[in-house]
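Dear support,

We are seeing what looks like truncated structure output for some complexes. This example has two components. We would appreciate it if you could run it in full and send us the complete token output so we can diff it against ours.
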Amino acid sequence: MSAPAKHPEISRELVGEPYTLDEAEAHAYAAAIERPATRHPRPSIHSDPEAARKAGFRAPIAAGEQSYALVANFLVDLFGVRFLRGGRLEAVFLKPVFYGQRLTVHARVSARGESATELEVWVEDEDRDRVLTGKASLPAAEHDEPEFS
Amino acid sequence: MNEDERLPMCPENLREGMKLGPIFYVVMPEQVEAFARATANTNPLYTSPSERIAPPTMRLQDYGLLIAAHFRSGSGGIHAKHRSEFYEPMRVGQTVRTDGRITRTWSKRGKFYFELEYEARDAETEELLVRHAMTAVLLHEGARQ
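Here is the complete output from our reference environment:
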């Protein structure tokens, strides 16, 4: 991602680096969070092909929060800790995402007021279909503080 | 709640106002590393040896732990929507308490939906760190979505 302007104009689209969903890393992360295990693991649509098939998917699907995490991380990359103090993010998951797919985060400043900056955010797959769409906001930058970190 | 007391995960047992949790955990550096690898993110905020913070959605899946603490069996669900409010970054070494509540349930076109709101606070100071709300479609055994 190239360095954005200090105060980008509204409607300028910001694009993150393409990211390929790695199944092994996703499972390693899930295992780390659940350690120690608090439940008996049951077949999951995110890891078990049969469970995924029964739910109507051709293969295990990545958890929606992986796409969501890409957006949140992108906003922290752009705005730094400022996004984590008063920032908001909301999103709808539009279509399932499979391991091995390549995703790209997009953001566009839709409004910049005295108190907050608002953005439209979305994630596209390698076919440029949107898999997630939403909006974000964060407190406006302090006087002379760069909009972006 | 031990496993013998957990309720089967089904629409009849998901009730508006139902409280889930609390769960407690310490934000561990290896979790930050695992999450950073899983999301291919190398932001120095997550790797700095001093004042190291967790990526913003590293503990988003706390909703799964809240559900698992109260419910058993079932076929899981499909995450449909999510929203987050960030107040303070989580820090490595911080002890966190997460509480949740089923805020809404409804049926539409033969599918059962529920919304679960949950928030994470510093377990010692009760400072609010992040508030989430997730909406999911409950999967039925053998159903095609």
